[in-house]
Amino acid sequence: xxxxxxxxxxxxxxxxxxxxxxxxxxxxxxxxxxxxxxxxxxxxxxxxxxxxxxxxxxxxxxxxxxxxxxxxxxxxxxxxxxxxxxxxxxxxxxxxxxxxxxxxxxxxxxxxxxxxxxxxxxxxxxxxxxxxxxxxxxxxxxxxxxxxxxxxxxxxxxxxxxxxxxxxxxxxxxxxxxxxxxxxxxxxxxxxxxxxxxxxxxxxxxxxxxxxxxxxxxxxxxxxxxxxxxxxxxxxxxxxxxxxxxxxxxxxxxxxxxxxxxxxxxxxxxxxxxxxxxxxxxxxxxxxxxxxxxxxxxxxxxxxxxxxxxxxxxxxxxxxxxxxxxxxxx
Length: 330
What we know:
Helix content: 40-55%
Distance between the termini: 13 Å
Number of strands: 10
């Protein structure tokens, strides 16, 4: 399918790949916010200290982000000196990474129940960012505080977290806020996600991130964005897990995804890091069913036209356009 392949590459390169200017401005903006937060304690002794180094996570870090650049995820690793990690009310035999210095300011922000409230920590970051960016839109957004920089049309998601290292040598992880006005913390490790993504990208000749961006475009333009970005990316990992054939053409890879993803979407989707709960708990039964219907429609349309349109490449291209939108140029 050379014409389909060419059209998909054009869509990917012209509309779904961040430009050098967007990446540059994103880098300047997230580094500015990171430096601001790291140095905040110098003039506000109640603000957390940081250890281990802050780092990027999410689809921006994995190279699977599509425009708009509204959530560059920045993990801010707070000093955990004096904290004891809990998991579902049970003490963990683990270390919360910290500086070891006395008087950790995070200890000033415990709730009435004697536990550190992730909600209060998010509010603390939100208030500081509202002060530093009075002309920007600042809001709590799930596990993060989002800073929307309207002049650049980009957003930074600041995620306060703690680095937890189990004493038995098992997989380390991070606690991030639960979000949505909840007080507890969630287990995750975005560095595992990044490694998984890197492995798929390397195996598939650096084409896997392009496939994921095309799927996100389909989800946005044809599926009303019913699937969250991370869930869709995880589904792509499961669908292509153990497949010996490397991606040669995006059209074939998309077709394979739509033919095989139903078995993974119809049931609970495990966290690929094996640290947290199923990642599709946000998905309502109605939206799950509508997404399954969209997937079936997409697969049927592409397959039918592929079989009947062997001598009619224009018909095949129009079928792809119907599920990928006006930016798919034929």
